[in-house]
Amino acid sequence: MTEFGPRDREAVYKSIYSRRDIRQFAGDPVPEEVLGRILDAAHNAPSVGFSQPWDFVVIEDEQTKSAVAAIAERAIAAAREGYEEPRKSDFGQLKLEGITDAPVNICVTCDPTRDAPHVLGRNTMQRMDVYSTCLAVQNLWLAARAEGIGVGWVSFLYPHELRNVLNIPHHVQPVAYLCVGYPEDGFPSEPVLQQEGWRSRIDRAELVHHDEWDPSRTPETQS
Question: Is the pTM of this model over 0.85?
Answer without folding.
Answer: yes
